[in-house]
Amino acid sequence: MVAALERFDKIEVASAYQLVADAIEREIMSGRMRPGDSVGTEAALCAQFGVNRSTVREAIRVLEQSGLVRRGADRRLYASLPRYSGLSSRISRALILHEVTFRELWATARVLEIAAAEQAAENADAAIIALLEANQAQAEAAQDDPARLSHLDTEFHQLLAKATRNRVLELAREPAGLLFFPTTELIVRRVPEGAGRLVAAHRHLIDALKAGDAAQAALWMSRHIADWRKGFERAGRDLDEPVERVYARSVLRPPY
Amino acid sequence: MVAALERFDKIEVASAYQLVADAIEREIMSGRMRPGDSVGTEAALCAQFGVNRSTVREAIRVLEQSGLVRRGADRRLYASLPRYSGLSSRISRALILHEVTFRELWATARVLEIAAAEQAAENADAAIIALLEANQAQAEAAQDDPARLSHLDTEFHQLLAKATRNRVLELAREPAGLLFFPTTELIVRRVPEGAGRLVAAHRHLIDALKAGDAAQAALWMSRHIADWRKGFERAGRDLDEPVERVYARSVLRPPY
DNA sequence: ACATTGACTTTGTCGGACAAAGGGACAAGC
DNA sequence: GCTTGTCCCTTTGTCCGACAAAGTCAATGT
């Protein structure tokens, strides 16, 4: 039942709402429409494209979802820069559904976090270091609260990524981080010395950033990540387990 | 006109189409609905949720866009695993709009590609090496065709990432790769020895994979990426330029 | 000057409608 | 036996018109 010869390309007919979405997307990607610009009311778009409002609204859902368009507080439509967080959480969801293993997660987080530590040491400014210190102070006070500590750990690494001033790296590490660091809760719950080692590592990392010492930052991040792995295994878990759907919660509803 | 006291949380009213989308999303994320399962017709969903078809259709656009649901060849709705490629290209678009610089791109691609080379050396199997060899044969024959060579280079690195058998890494490197490697065209156009050095580096990488030599793979990848940077600068470009929108083409319409 | 009112606009949702495309069953033709 | 044409039914893509809720804005009254 297979086509005898694959001579022709699949002919693809684009539906109206797709065409509308594409048109607006091109307008934004080309720079003719800039983030913050008003896209116009639904009625106006209907008139311009000569389609029904239902069609326009479907196109808007597509654009809204890809982050190119946003509803303002006044409910009007504005062109917008896609937010990182939305993208990251969707990738994390995809990783869960693909049932990637903790080993894959760990190996990837390892290189990304070490790189982040190095680049952060080179580029961190006082403002971001202050935020890291604030995080650290809270973490030191929360060593007996696994859930809170885990949340602070996730935040610490996000701040560290921001300190790199490398938005590509910041975005690249986020999906893995979103799945990886929440497991900290499980580890500090099962491994007594886990919390102490965590805040100690964070301490050394902050100090390395302050000193602008990339090598030291990389070293302590390396230990920090190695600790995670040891803790994970001592908690009786297997690296080759797939990441559970349980983490979908923390991904679907980002921690406020 | 600020609220006197912030006693209450912002009450957020979710629109019907959002609720419908969320409900279906939860069904899929929880595993109750598995990829490939039919989601049902629009009419059926209307009946189940007790909303209008327009509302259901808007919800479907949202889910379709996030890749959780797909239209089959028969136009029916099926639950689906989000494809990597769709996600990657959207991130690349976001990076373009945020006007990230080539420096950020380079620094990130560097660590990700080196990690990919190492892990590929440890995990590559014969099948994927055969694909890399095929790519290499084409590249050697296309040294005078910058556009084609650039496309093959992008593909080479994608294959290398697949060889790692680490899907998290594979996905993490893709967005940067999608923007990074197309510049190869510009470089081999301006730098005479560029093409030769590129195929030579790929050759050494394949050999390292065959030998399972992670250190050697990392070394040659490191040189390969350093070459890119040298070529980029010799082509008269500045690393601190933002990535141009020009590349939107190659991102929006993935190379088939 | 400022709060209130009321008209106007825009969005979110609904109901119903129809053409086009695909699927399935069944008969006709080679 | 296999393909082809035909009819019917389902489903999707699109359109039209409608209305309540919420926001905007300008005129109003004090």
UniProtKB/TrEMBL annotation, chains A, B:
Residues 14-82 form the HTH gntR-type domain. Keywords: DNA-binding, Transcription, Transcription regulation. InterPro entries: GntR_C, TF_FadR/GntR_C, Tscrpt_reg_HTH_GntR, WH-like_DNA-bd_sf, WH_DNA-bd_sf. GO terms for molecular function: DNA binding; DNA-binding transcription factor activity. Gene3D superfamilies: GntR ligand-binding domain-like, Winged helix-like DNA-binding domain superfamily/Winged helix DNA-binding domain. PANTHER family: TRANSCRIPTIONAL REGULATOR, GNTR FAMILY, UXU OPERON TRANSCRIPTIONAL REGULATOR. This is GntR family transcriptional regulator.
